[in-house]
Specification:
Layout (H helix, E strand, L loop, with lengths): L16 H15 L3 E6 L2 E2 L2 E4 L5 H14 L2 E4 L3 H6 L6 H7 L4 E6 L7 H17 L22 E6 L4 E5 L6 E2 L4 E6 L5 E6 L4 E6 L4 E2 L4 E7 L2
Parallel strand pairs: 1-5, 3-4
Antiparallel strand pairs: 2-11, 3-5, 6-13, 7-9, 7-12, 8-11, 9-10, 11-13
Helix pairs in contact: 2-5
């Protein structure tokens, strides 16, 4: 069997192999001052995903740490999709439940190294440890990547209604308005079978890194303030 470790937290020290792995990571992360869970998200801008936090004091500490990185900050899906995706079983919510700041850092990459984003991620992480007082040198500015100054923006998935070959008309970081065409889906003869429209005003976070999709397939994610 295969298991998604990013949906297997907090794990079980006496469980199956994947549960033991996540239990060990949970223990180490919860002993730290804060946790930043680093992932890749295909073709995207670098961004931070913020999980819901009930405690206002912890929410403020987490927000301050996120802003200190200099990287775009985006709230997670609305609650219904958050539960459907099983996101509560990823690492940051478990660390937050332990009373420590935590969030996810997403960088570009899909079978390759996006070097400018790797450098942006490293700068963001170094800025985080500066904020925490672990090192005391000067904060660094990001360069060569898109940074959006957001407040209350939340990620929203764009899903294909028809299968086929995807042609995008936007790039990560582009601003969009509701109803703007962000891409097309074509059949194997090149005929347009779907016009992919932005569901709301916002900006593009990321695009599918593969050219083919299917009915109900992931196409893109945008950040919206609605």
């Amino acid at each position: 069997r295969t298991h998604d470790l990013n949906r297997s937290y907090p794990g079980d020290a006496d469980g199956e192999t994947h549960e033991r792995v996540t239990a060990a990571v949970t223990r180490i992360a919860c002993e730290a001052d804060a946790a930043i869970d680093v992932h890749t998200a295909g073709v995207c801008i670098p961004y931070l995903l913020m999980d819901p936090v009930a405690d206002p004091h912890l929410a403020a500490r987490t927000d301050e740490l996120a802003r200190a990185t200099g990287i775009t900050k985006i709230d997670e899906f609305v609650s219904e999709r958050y539960e459907t995706e099983g996101l509560a079983a990823s690492l940051p919510p478990v660390v937050l439940k332990a009373g420590k700041p935590a969030f996810t850092l997403e960088l570009a990459g899909h079978g390759n190294v996006a070097w400018e984003q790797a450098e942006a991620g490293a700068i963001g992480l170094r800025n985080a440890i500066r904020h925490l007082g672990i090192v005391r040198d000067e904060r660094e500015a990001l360069h060569d990547v898109v940074v959006k100054h957001t407040d209350g923006h939340r990620r929203r998935a764009v899903i294909a209604e028809r299968g086929g070959i995807v042609e995008f008309n936007v790039r990560p970081g582009d601003d969009v308005t509701k109803g703007r065409r962000i891409g097309r889906v074509r059949d194997v003869w090149g005929r347009v079978v779907e016009e992919v429209l932005a569901p709301a005003d916002g900006f593009v976070i990321g695009l599918s890194p593969v050219a083919a999709t299917w009915t109900g397939g992931y196409l893109a994610e945008i950040a919206t303030a609605d």
